[in-house]
Design a protein that fits this description.
Layout lengths: L7 H19 L3 H14 L11 H19 L5 H15 L9 H7 L10 H18 L20
Helix pairs in contact: 1-2, 1-3, 2-4, 3-4, 3-6, 4-6, 5-6
Length: 157
């Protein structure tokens, strides 16, 4: 993924890459899942990744990653490694939630703020982060490396 979305070439390149990432995340193949979550984690670690046209695609890719994890990998022998890839992917997005200007997301972080309009992207982002946290908490703790408890992926209010 290109990290300089200010140019139409980078945006165009990203637009071509999003469907490839979606296909690989949904493939059910461990190598595709881990490779794609890694690439997304690197790309999403930059503020430049969160331009307006990319935000709905980012949420869609997070939803696909969660769905694939729950449908395909939750009982996989490598569930711990796979859960760490998913956890890192979700955790890298959380510091950039402010890049989603949707009111519901802001109210999630600032519970005293009342918002007056709905935006499906914000609802979807919030839902995928919370669902991922819930799903990862179901990974058997006996499988956790060093018997450490699963990490919280949603910041405290």
């Amino acid at each position: 993924m290109k990290t300089a979305p200010n140019t139409s070439g980078a945006i165009s390149s990203n637009e071509k890459t999003f469907p490839i990432f979606a296909r690989k995340l949904a493939s059910g193949e461990v190598k595709d899942f881990t490779g794609t979550t890694y690439k997304l984690t690197v790309w999403l670690n930059s503020e430049k990744a969160y331009y307006a046209a990319a935000r709905p695609k980012i949420v869609e890719l997070l939803e696909i990653a969660l769905r694939t994890f729950m449908d395909t990998f939750i009982h996989h022998p490598a569930v711990m490694e796979l859960s760490e890839h998913l956890r890192r992917l979700i955790q890298v997005v959380i510091p950039f939630c402010h890049m989603f200007p949707e009111a519901e997301l802001k109210s999630w972080y600032h519970s005293d703020q009342v918002c007056s309009f709905d935006d499906p992207c914000a609802d979807r982002l919030q839902r995928v982060i919370l669902d991922t946290n819930t799903s990862l908490s179901r990974v058997p703790t006996s499988s956790v490396r060093d018997n450490a408890p699963p990490q919280e992926t949603v910041p405290a209010k």
